[in-house]
């Protein structure tokens, strides 16, 4: 079945550092790919998405490119802030049903 | 819009008791999803509804779990009897369109979750 694998955390960075969180997937058909963010005590919020190969999703300085050849959707940000501290989830939507399959999440901790 | 509303936010109960979690989706959304989040298993889809009809409940762990959606603005997830291993955060999410393949995906909006502790 469909699956998403993300790097384990926590990822600990200093403010203004470069961020990469790796995500790879296994899926049949043509899934759409997503990054969700979860701040402490809150539900998940959609951060960005890409619906086809070579698409780049971007939002709030975060970017991810849908790489079909490597089945990856790595999240990047050039300069992180303390307010970016959260748990980040990579997800895909199933070809047939449109339901989401999530990775286990990666905690990001940014210190001043 | 108030977003997806879940109640209660926190629930502490004893093993064997019945637990009912409630969700009000965003008005106009016709798909509703129940998820469970634990440290060990991450975020798991339990069941989802489309136009109030359960479409896939294969994620419901056991017969102790049941979910209903009597109308477009309300859903419940019930656990009876509850067990300590049911302790988790339960999220409800809703989306505005029908699910069905790439290109028809609609963003899922999540509620704040219910943190359930079963002693």
Q: How would you describe this structure to a colleague?
A:
The complex is a heterodimer of chains A (112) and B (119). Chain A has strands spanning 3-6, 11-14, 19-21, 23-26, 32-38, 44-50, 56-59, 62-65, 75-77, 86-93, 100-102, 106-111. Helix content of chain A is 0%, strand content 51%. Chain A has 112 residues and is mainly beta. In chain A, the strands form three sheets. In chain A, strands 2, 5, 6, 10, 11 and 12 form a six-stranded mixed sheet that branches. Chain A has a four-stranded antiparallel sheet with strand order 3-9-8-7, with no helix packed on it. In chain A, a hairpin with a 6-residue loop joins strand 10 and strand 11. Chain A is globular. In chain B, 0% of the residues lie in helices and 52% in strands. In chain B, the strands form two sheets. In chain B, strands 2, 4, 5, 6, 9, 10 and 11 form a seven-stranded mixed sheet that branches. Chain B is globular. The chains are: A mainly beta (112), B mainly beta (119).
Largest sheet entry of chain A:
6 strands, mixed
Based on CA atoms alone, the radius of gyration of chain A comes out at 13 Å
What sequence of helices (H) and strands (E) makes up the elements of chain B? EEEEEEEEEEE
Put simply, the count of helices of chain A is 0
Distance between the termini of chain B: 36 Å
Oligomer status: heterodimer
Mean pLDDT of chain B: 90
SSE topology sketch:
The complex is a heterodimer of chains A (112) and B (119).
Chain A (H helix, E strand, L loop, with lengths): L2 E4 L4 E4 L4 E3 L1 E4 L5 E7 L5 E7 L5 E4 L2 E4 L9 E3 L8 E8 L6 E3 L3 E6 L1
Chain B lengths: L4 E3 L2 E4 L5 E6 L6 E8 L3 E9 L2 E4 L8 E7 L2 E6 L8 E8 L13 E2 L3 E5 L1
Parallel strand pairs in B: 2-11
Antiparallel strand pairs in B: 1-3, 3-8, 4-5, 4-9, 5-6, 7-8, 9-10, 9-11
């Amino acid at each position: 079945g469909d699956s998403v694998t993300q790097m384990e955390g926590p990822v600990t960075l200093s403010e203004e550092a470069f961020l990469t969180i790796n995500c790879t997937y296994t899926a049949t058909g043509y899934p759409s790919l997503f990054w969700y963010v979860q701040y402490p005590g809150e539900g998940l919020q959609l951060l960005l998405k890409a619906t086809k190969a070579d698409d780049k999703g971007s939002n709030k300085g975060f970017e991810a490119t849908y790489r079909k050849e490597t089945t990856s959707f790595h999240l990047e940000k050039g300069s992180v802030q303390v307010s970016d501290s959260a748990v980040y989830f990579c997800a895909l939507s199933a070809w047939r049903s449109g339901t989401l399959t999530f990775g286990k999440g990666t905690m990001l901790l940014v210190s001043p | 819009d108030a977003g997806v509303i879940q109640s209660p936010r926190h629930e502490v109960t004893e093993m064997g008791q019945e637990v009912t979690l409630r969700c009000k989706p965003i008005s106009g959304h016709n798909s509703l999803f129940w998820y469970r989040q634990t440290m060990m298993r991450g975020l798991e889809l339990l069941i989802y509804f489309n136009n109030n009809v359960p479409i896939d409940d294969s994620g419901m762990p056991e017969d102790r779990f049941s979910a209903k959606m009597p109308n477009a603005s309300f859903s419940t997830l019930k656990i009876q009897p509850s067990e300590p291993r049911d302790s988790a955060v339960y999220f409800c999410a809703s989306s505005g369109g029908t699910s069905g393949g790439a290109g028809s995906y609609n963003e899922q909006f999540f509620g704040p979750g219910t943190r359930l502790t079963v002693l």
